[in-house]
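Anyone else keep sequences and structure tokens together like this?

Example one:
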Amino acid sequence: MSTRFGYTLMTEQSGPKQLVSYAQQAEQVGFDFEVSSDHYSPWLAEQGHAPYAWTVLGAVAQVTERVDLMTYVTCPTLRYHPAVVAQKAATMQLLSDGRFTLGLGSGENLNEHVVGQRWPSVGARQAMLVEAIEIIRALHTGELVDYRGEWFDVESARIWDLPDQPVPLGVAVSGERSISTFGPLADHLVAVEPRADLVEAWNATDGTATIGDGARAVGQIPICWGPDAEEATTLAHEQFRWFAGGWKVNADLPTPAGFAGASQFVRPDDVADQIPCGPDLDKIVDAASAFWEAGFTDVALVQVGDRLQQQFLDEAAGPLLDKLRAAAP
């Protein structure tokens, strides 16, 4: 199975019409798949956007023909009830003619606190996600579903418009505990760090398909390509300095103001140490190689910032994809 390369629709840094246009161009440039974030708020006020990802994806499905589409990732527990997510995913699969994968995760306080519910502990969030997946799977059978759980109830629900095949599910994992919990319930692994131990643990878990043989491991890497390295570093710092905190911190911060405070001492050089910035395509390839060396099958690129997005697609994306495919297994 050859490595696939994807383009990320960052709903935090671009408006809805721009995202649809970028998605169409990314397919034309040659990306294999496209993933979309699903946020209610941007991480930082400087990013300035947060359109509704599902509307954007529906439009993207109509302006693309070949690329696979995926949420990266949706939390089906607080802001959305899992019965509603099941309906949305089935509709997306129909609109995209079978190109959609539902990527799920246990969520971030930034997006979920807006509905006024208490932000649960990690253990509770994982238990909620288990029930949510059970509900989504049940509804995707097309049967009438009644469900009584600790966290969710479903009464006489049925999805009336279903694709011929169930929607594949990818689930974000971070370690052995989450893999043992979610691996048997999911089709594909999702992770933002190029860790071989995640792939190994997934493959060793009973009830999971092997990565590369039935299951995919989908990673994501931010880059900030630009013709001037200093300008690209400045942009990456402005838009993505929140990234330096790591997901254990980021999952619990509630507002863009909180992210601004948490990242106030992050320097541009600190960001450049984590995100390849500037015109050097080989540097980007080297950073991305950590994923396929760890056993990941899919790598989605995040071009940071709207300011250079069009230029990236026009000038750099094609040559970068050529270099990535030449280097990857």
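And example two:
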Amino acid sequence: MFDQNIIAKLQQISGKDQVLTDTADLICYSYDATQKQYRPDVVVHPGSVEEVSQIMQLANETKTPVFPRGAGTGFTGGSVPIAGGIVLGLTRLDKILEIDEENLVATIEPGVVTEDFQKTVEKVGLFYPPDPASLKVSTMGGNVAECAGGPRCVKYGVTKDYIIGLEIVTPTGDIIKTGGPTMKGVVGYDLTKLICGSEGTLAVITKIIVKLLPKPEAKKTMLVLFDSIDGAAQAVSAIIRGKIIPTTLEFLDARTLECVRNATDLDVPDAAHAVLLIEVDGDREFLDKQVQKISQIVQPLGVVETRIAETPAESEALWQIRRSISASLRQVNPDKFNEDICVPRSKVPDMIRKIEQIADKYQIPIVNFGHAGDGNIHVNIMIDGKIPGEEEKAEKAIVEVFEGALELGGTMSGEHGVGIMKAPFISLELSDSVVDYMKTIKRALDPNNILNPGKIFPSDR
């Protein structure tokens, strides 16, 4: 039975209406996009950094686990409360506090929705590039905790490249600031980068200082269909060697295209076995030249067809092929294991072939798409969980996918993080000494292991 005194103190800190204990409410905060469920004992929504500090002090004194949570869109179980305890919902902290147009800096709270932030800064001619697929729902605090990526990362980088300062609450309740609004700063350790990508295990983020860019004047979209994944991958390297860094370089493999054909009325030629969705941005006068140059570069590499958008509506139509994937996958099988390996971009064809061999070995469909520009492959293992043995086959396939990526000099997670889903496999990629070094940091900052326990390191579960 959970200590009712803790619930009473949480109510004193944040108010009774911000503390949830009903079963229906607890279920809502028990899972993320993985659908793995662990029910918390209580959910609290603090309204200020002072409240977060008091909650963490209480949790540390009573050794109660705390699980910070944004919108719960993660794919690795990073926010699920696997040890019960307190879910710390941060969605009330949702203010854009300042947009400094002179210094190209914004200060925001963690509960700000990513797309809302992007649209707000774009109204004043500024630009925040990271664009995870969940941007319409996901919060900036969650993006920082997971170091989120997205299609535009090939040109602009990931979340950590834009976070220059934080206000955080430590596991013991201290409120500290890291970094600041300046573009340079090398006093002491870079705690900002340490927290970014730490998956909520080291601190609770309560304020974020974000670096912005001038908004590009225009963008242009093109869809190139290839007769093989090798041609598409060679095209990626050739484009970048040609001194063009597109905003996005998305790819779809043959299995993905088959899903799109079967589930939609989108026109995809039968001869196409791979697709690159390419977008460039910048000064309007240079975009047509860039698109023409890209067309010339890729033409000898097995191009079946090239489509170039001339209007925003045509651009949206091209993106519709990419956006139709998630819905079309359910036509293959009802259940999905979604992994996000990353390999050197020249190794994408080798990795796709490895995955095809794994799919044949276990007789389960595996559909691949992702960010070709940085080698980030979203591997979707599709099964029917009601069929005995299917889930076990999927789990074996996942291990072989991870091993294949590592053999090619890659990583088992490009942008989703580790959480609980990849924790059992972390020793495949990191040596014991590296893991021990990380755990030393965790123990030093969170001596009672109350903040998001059980994540990243399997032995902590």
